[in-house]
């Protein structure tokens, strides 16, 4: 093979690689949904909603996302029967797409319907990476939400939000399964946002039931 042909092949391969890289970066820049690649490291103590939102924004910025208004998909409760904060009311109107440009939901209603496109292959991190789930060496499919299936704050009673995301010891938080798989083939085990309560609020307790203190982030702009 002549040097000229080799050079052309090399140039062509390089251009294809550069084009692929540019496409990936463009998709990440347009990302409006992701699962945090890491929690805050203190169990379910996220510093409240403000701390969780700031974590979403910091991860998104580091990944090259152009959106700046990020909200964590988390609900809170209030004492004395007062209304809490609903996760579904915090995240804008949609549509939302992951770091690879795949749309996971067109609207809030779509997000909380049977048509939602959230599973292990679409619930990617801000880096575009798949999070391990049930059946993998390390299971991290428990995603913090504190919400019922419709994205509303829970009225089940007891602690469902680890003290509104300020506890790292005793307590519990409702989690969803990003891979839509659980111990049983039931509706709750297949829920991306409301599967069961955590064993506790500390980092080790979250790991014990298949989590890592991760949560969903949505762009509102």
- Give the biggest sheet: 6 strands, mixed
> How would you state the average pLDDT, rounded?
90
Q: Please state the structural category.
A: alpha+beta
Give me the count of strands. 8
Q: How many alpha or pi helices?
A: 5
Structure report:
The protein contains 5 helices and 8 strands; from the N terminus they run αβαβββαβαββαβ. The protein has 221 residues and is an alpha+beta fold. The longest helix has 27 residues, at 3-29. Strands 1, 2, 5, 6, 7 and 8 form a 6-stranded mixed β-sheet that branches. It has a two-stranded antiparallel sheet with strand order 3-4. Residues 15-22 have low confidence and may be disordered. Strand 3 (96-97) and strand 4 (103-105) form a beta hairpin. It has helices at 3-29, 48-62, 108-111, 162-165, 203-208; strands at 33-35, 70-72, 96-97, 103-105, 142-144, 174-177, 196-197, 211-219. Helix content is 25%, strand content 13%. The chain has one domain (31-219): Roll (Mannose-Binding Protein A, Chain A), CATH 3.10.100.
What is the compact description of this entry?
With 221 residues, this protein is α+β, with helices and mostly antiparallel strands.
List the helices and strands and how they pair.
Elements (H helix, E strand, L loop, with lengths): L2 H27 L3 E3 L12 H15 L7 E3 L23 E2 L5 E3 L2 H4 L30 E3 L17 H4 L8 E4 L18 E2 L5 H6 L2 E9 L2
Parallel strand pairs: 5-8
Antiparallel strand pairs: 1-8, 2-8, 3-4, 5-6, 6-7
């Amino acid at each position: 093979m002549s040097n000229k042909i080799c050079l052309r092949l090399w140039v062509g391969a390089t251009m294809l690689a550069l084009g692929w890289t540019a496409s990936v970066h463009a998709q990440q820049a347009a990302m409006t949904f992701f699962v945090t690649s890491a929690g805050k490291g203190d169990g379910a103590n996220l510093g409240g909603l403000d701390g969780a939102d700031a974590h979403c924004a910091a991860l998104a910025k580091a990944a090259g996302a152009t959106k700046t208004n990020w909200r964590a998909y988390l609900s809170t409760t209030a004492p004395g029967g007062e209304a809490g904060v609903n996760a579904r009311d915090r995240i804008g109107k949609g549509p939302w797409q992951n770091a690879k440009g795949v749309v996971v939901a067109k609207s809030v209603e779509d997000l909380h319907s049977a048509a939602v496109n959230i599973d292990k292959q679409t619930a990617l991190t801000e880096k575009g990476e798949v999070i391990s789930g049930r059946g993998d060496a390390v299971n991290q499919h428990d995603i913090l939400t504190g919400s019922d299936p419709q994205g509303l704050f829970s009225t089940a009673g007891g602690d469902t939000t680890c003290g509104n995301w300020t506890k790292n010891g005793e307590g519990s938080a409702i989690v969803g399964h990003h891979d839509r798989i659980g111990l049983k083939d039931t509706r709750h085990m297949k829920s991306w946002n409301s599967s069961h309560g955590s064993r506790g609020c500390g980092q080790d307790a979250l790991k014990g039931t298949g989590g890592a203190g991760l949560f969903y982030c949505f762009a509102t702009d």
